[in-house]
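I keep forgetting this: the sequence line spells out the residues, with the fold written below as integer tokens. I include a record here:
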Amino acid sequence: MSIGSNIKSLREERHFTQEQVAEALGITFQAVSSWERDEYKPDTDKLIKLAELFDVSVSAIAEERQKAFKTKEAIYNWEHMKTFVKTTARNFRLRDTLKAVDYAVEAHEGQKRKKSVIPYIYHPLNLSCHALSMGIVEDEVIAACMLHDVVEDCGKKIDDLPVSDETKELVRLLTHEKSKPENREQMMDAYYEEISRNPKAALIKCIDRCNNLTTMSWGLSRERIYRMIAETEKYFPKLLKVVKAEPEYSNASWLLQYQMESMLDIYKRLM
């Protein structure tokens, strides 16, 4: 696809008219039309403004791609993951996890991942499968992976969760209140500091961040992606050190750090 075709495609995907694009950039709609017909190419300043308007990278507009790649939002079927987690829980007698899976499925019913049609339960199931695949078979950890968002996003109360006090404490640590721009940094500092005092909570939060990094390209705006990168670089080195300090999590910490830093590097290069 040419630069003009990219501009037209992105404009139409966002239901913008040429006049609306022109007004946002402070130019005439004839200029936008000439770009889309490949009669002229926008200068660097206009490319940057187009990228901000369409909420994409400059390369998504400027690169003349010959072929478009097919993308997918989900890799695994969430019901298959549910079966895997429950089967593993039965085999290892993980009582909290067995209760947590069904509770989370019901609590998140009808919810979708940001800007997608993927059921939200795909996310906590991903965390649980991620932990199990790294050889972590601890009841409170897997159960907290399943329940880590039910208080924050589903209006559930900690005391009502059908799990042990240790699992409830992990969910409490992983839950944070909604913040406002003026107090966000202070709240996040306190939130991550408390998590860093509990290796299991730090482990779950690192798994959660890895999963969120893999989906933020289609689930977050460019502004939120920048914020996610900055937040990851600020808080997660400390959490990874906490995880690595636990002998039973040392292998997991290597994998988590590798995935996290690889994803950050990819996003930085593409942004």
